[in-house]
Design brief:
Structural class: mainly beta
Oligomer: single chain
Order of helices and strands: EEEE
Shape: elongated
Length: 77
């Protein structure tokens, strides 16, 4: 498997996004995620896990959306 992470190496990430719109109505949004991965043993297996939270709010329509997510990935060649 081609990767910048060597065998036995690890990686981590943090990402986020914010938004706000105010013209004729209010709008908000947000997203955040943290994660970790590990290259297990030889070059053939990599596993990762990520956790995140997202939210949105529109005042004019009185709507609200909120959620959490979990990501698990495993790749083997």
């Amino acid at each position: 498997m081609d990767s910048a992470i060597p065998a036995g190496g690890r990686c981590a990430w943090i990402s986020g996004d914010l938004a706000r719109f105010e013209r004729d109505r209010d709008a908000q949004g947000g997203l955040g995620e943290v994660g970790y991965c590990n290259r297990l043993g030889s070059d053939t297996l990599m596993a990762g896990i990520g956790l995140g939270k997202s939210a949105s709010d529109e005042d004019r329509v009185f709507s609200r959306v909120s959620g959490s997510f979990f990501l698990h990935a495993k790749r083997k060649t």
